[in-house]
Amino acid sequence: MRVAEIKSISKEEGYIYYINRYKATAVIEYLSKQASFPFSFSVEINPLGVRSYNVSDLPRTLDYPVLPVKKALKEFIIHMDKNNELP
Predict the structure, then answer these.
(1) Residue of 19, 17, 10, 24 whose CA lies nearest to 87
(2) How far apart are CA 60 and CA 83, in angstroms?
(3) Fewer Cβ atoms within 10 Å of its own Cβ: the N or the C terminal residue of the chain?
(4) Nearest to 35 by CA among 61, 13, 17
(5) Cβ(35)–Cβ(62) below 8 Å
(6) What angle do CA 29, 24, 51 make, to 5 degrees?
């Protein structure tokens, strides 16, 4: 299983300035199939500047175990954040 891309990323407006919430569409490849689904994630920055990432709202109809998908999405988001690719 691998994340092919995360597209249609939009930042949600919020009142807490140190938490950035996003909605996006993930495209994953597994078992010679490709699936696309919407999900949301957040990036929180603590007072020391350490970032924590949270992935949520994964579909229940996904034909693959949820934990590996969450882990792969989180790694892909961390990579995008380090390369300043998030809005």
Answers:
(1) 10
(2) 30
(3) C
(4) 61
(5) yes
(6) 100
Could you tell me the two tokens for 57? 């709202």
Q: Which amino acid appears at position 64 of this protein? A: Y
pTM over 0.70: yes
Q: Are 26 and 6 in contact (CB under 8 A)?
A: yes
In 3-state terms, what secondary structure has residue 65? coil
Give, for all 87 residues of the chain, the pLDDT tens digit.
Answer: 999 999 999 999 988 899 999 999 999 999 889 999 999 999 999 999 999 999 998 998 888 899 999 999 999 999 999 999 999
The residue type of 3 is V
CB half-sphere exposure, 57, CA atoms < 13 A? 12
Question: What is 24-37 written as a DSSP string?
Answer: EEEEEEETTEEEEE
- What are the structure tokens assigned to 63, written together? 């034909």
